[in-house]
Structures are given as structure tokens and as C-alpha cells.
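Risk register update: the risk of archive-format incompatibility is retired. Evidence:
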Amino acid sequence: FSAYAPVQQGGRATPRTIQFYEQLAEKVQDARHNADIAIIGGDMHAPIMHANAPHLIGNWASHREGNNSESLINLMCEQKWSHSTLSNNVNGGIGTRGHAGSQIHD
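Archived output:
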């Protein structure tokens, strides 16, 4: 999948962000149900600090927490992901600012 989360404005998850993560979880569950391997690339707009999710984030954790971080952490916990199954970019998941759309593509 390629997935691009909406950019958060303010400190709370918006209905659009909640819908995005619900749809992403459904797509991952569908892939698992079909015995497919799900590889997700894109921008979650969710930098996560190692201290806030040590069991989920490896060496490339961010130095700051983002507005979407809690939503991404919840998704990762629900899907039973760990840092050994993830890859973050060197910036710790900090993505391009100003991208207004959210998308999930098969």
C-alpha cells in the first residue's frame, strides 16, 4: 500500500485522521485475511519519540512527538507491529509539510 495521512492542525485527531487510520487498519486486516504480505509506504505525518513507544520504534526514532503520533502508535499496537517489522527514514518519520490530502492506494 501507499498511504499518506492527513496533516494535523492542532493537537487532536480530526475525524479525517481517525477515518484514515481506520481504513488503513481495514486494508491491513484484509491483506492478512488473504494471507498476503502488507508493505506500507508513504507519509504518516507522525514522528514518534522512542521513549513514547520503545517496543515499537528502533534506532531511527524522532526527537519530537507529532500530532498523528498517538494514532500511529495505536495502529501499530492493534496490528502487533514491532520495530523489527518497521522502517523509518533518517528523519524519524518527519514528512513534507503542507500536503493536504490523505490517501490509501492498493
